[in-house]
Amino acid sequence: MDTKVSVVIPTFNERDNIGAVISKIKHLHPGFEIVVVNDGSTDDTASVAHQSGAIVYSHPYNIGNGAAVKTGIRKATGDILVFLDGDGQHKPEDIGRMLELFPEYDMVVGERTRGGQASFNRAIGNQVYNWLATYVTKFSVKDLTSGFRAIKADIAKSYIYMLPNTYSYPTTITLGVLRDGRSVKYLPIETQKRKSGKSSISIVKDGVRFLMIIIKICTLYSPLRVFLPVSFFMVLLGCSRYLYSYVTEGRFTNMSALLFTAAVTIFMMGLISEQICQMRFERRSSDRGVRQFSGDINRRES
């Protein structure tokens, strides 16, 4: 490929794994830029990565996996960015398969098989997230939380401000790209067991965080997808309450009135949010067009 590719690897205490990952990438793709972001490791991950031939940037303390990814996006110079974990679970051989799908697609995501999930509980949780994300984006999301992906650099940079500092960055960037009308391709991959150490992701803590990220991104990009079901649920509650009170008391109660009023209020809030969302998109598109036009003029003058 003539396009420059940067491989971004966020790491935290991966001394035993990172060297082999970097060596494999360099063997398969010697021309790729490899950027390792050491997120405050307490072992010698940074020195091992440097000795293996990667460009290393270190955080002074552990900020989070997402923060390391954001640092990698800022520092990488490639036109296409490839993200993968430094624990040896992702196969560098799959990078070439991903890059074959560019420039047709804006982002390519490695889709793990159910057997490739860390645990049965994690697999069930990820499937629930996939269903919710599919509902939000109206696109068949097959692996929302996969950290192995390739994306055009300009698109990744445009989403830095949205990405959290935690493990939920794949969720955010996936929903953002899809709701922004970008093209996404899921590529089936096989993952490997960690060679050493264990995952620091908490099923309960990070699971709740992933769920909140989905809800926040949903309300940011398509508010009615959240407000409308809630409004409809309140209508159903109001009808049920009215039917019960009519049968038992023969009258329309204040609780029924409150539920119907809440349903209308929530629906109207959804409409207002949808309008604000549309105005934000139009402004962002306009600003992007102005920047592109200015860039073209500067290039012509130079």
TrEMBL record:
Coiled-coil regions listed: none
CDD domains, A to Z: DPM_DPG-synthase_like
Highest taxon in the source lineage: Bacteria
GO function terms (MF aspect): transferase activity
Short name of one Pfam family: Glycos_transf_2
The keyword Transmembrane helix is annotated on this UniProt entry: yes
Keyword terms, alphabetized: Membrane, Transferase, Transmembrane, Transmembrane helix
TM ranges: 226-244, 256-277
Record bears the keyword Transferase: yes
Glycosyltransferase 2-like domain span: 6-157
Protein name: Glycosyl transferase
Organism the protein comes from: Desulfosarcina alkanivorans
